[in-house]
Amino acid sequence: RQAPWILWIKDLSVMDPYYVLPVIMGGSMFIQQKLNPAPPDPMQAKLMMALPFVFTVMFAFFPSGLVLYWVANNALSIAQQWIITKRIEDQAAAVKK
Question: Could you tell me if residue 41 is inside a domain?
């Protein structure tokens, strides 16, 4: 607790004073949802599109360490989904030849 970290974050146990991490988290969550297939139900699709904004507001008041963990998890999930999608598309293109 209260140990300095990097840049503007002086303590991971308190909320981000400039709300940078929650905004990054919301953006990464939005990108992650765009990479995933859309749900078949239109109402569920609308709800899924609203969730990044809801989570951004909610996470603005959470400790910076938790938001940083969520951002890292989203970044890894985005990379994983992109790699899997790319491999599937490459395999489908190879089968068509």
Answer: yes
For the stretch 30-41, pLDDT in tens is 999 998 888 899
In-domain check, residue 79: yes
Tens of pLDDT, residue by residue over 83-95, are 999 999 999 999 8
Q: Does some domain include residue 3?
A: no
Q: How many domains is the chain built from?
A: 1
Matching residue, tokens 């297939």: 37
* Owner of token pair 């790699």: 83
Residue 65 clears pLDDT 70, i.e. is over it: yes
For helices 64-96 and 42-59, the axis angle rounded to 10 degrees is 150
CA–CA separation, 82 and 68 (whole Å): 21
